Amino acid sequence: MRNVSKMMVIIVSVCVIAVSSIYYNYKFVRYDSDKIIFGATYMTMNNSFYKAITDEIEKQINGRGDILYTRDPALDVDKQNEQINDLIEMGIDVLIINPVDYSKVNDSLKKAKAKGIKIIVIDAQLDDVTIADTTVLSNNYDAGVQCAKDMMRNLASAKIVLLKHSAALSSVDRINGFLDTIKDNDNYTVVASEECLGQTEVAMPVMMEIIDKKIDFDVVMALNDPSALGALAAIKDKQINHEVLVYGVDGSPDMKKLLIDSDEVQGTAAQSPTTMGAKAIEAAYEIVDDEPYEKSIVVPVTLITKDNISEYDISGWQ
Question: Nearest 10 degrees: CA dihedral of 301, 302, 303, 309?
Fold first, then answer.
């Protein structure tokens, strides 16, 4: 009986050592030094825009035979910091980040940089631009400008609701572009300005509360398409009968389909997540290979309305 007990102790000990070794090698040790290991953490994967970016990045990395770990912090900056630290411990060479907050990830990123990890920031920049090796953005300010100009072409005056996400500098730039365009014209007035995290399920109740307050409006400028769709859902639910011009930013398939099939939205400033993903990974390989690269990459945007929707594929992203 004693021999059986000893044997069980030995077997359990061997299993614990084996499992611990597998875990250590998985989490902390590069298992193939010939491959470049990428880590990516996006603001949220509850947005087809980020899925389109990561699909392009994954395609490029897989095509070269390298490795990609992708994480979703679900709009939680503390969780994103944890993910960055975990990816550092996994021995990544390059970190691709779409920050939840433009400043609250800086310490984790500086830690990664001190380890020699290259930092690629995508879609929403950091407040400290020196941390990133390169930053890939849409022309977010111009997205707001183009929406404002279209509104001014269509309305001689307007009462405007802004839906924002102030922790993301990309959103701040879009709203600032819009506001700067109308600032010298008293015919255009912002009657409400609310945070919605760029999420449909947050924007809808926020918009419903604005409507319940009896605030008179005829334009919604939303930081992105998901929040524009949330606003639209609230407008329909509350049975607002007068015309409301709804603007978003993204050029998502959902918004393009609405432009084709209905009069419910006015326009969307189209980004190209496919182009952004391709340019981000191209810059990453240039940096790793010690080749010349661009420190800042800005991708143009184009306003899509009913006037030019026929020029776009509504089934996918640009």
Answer: -140
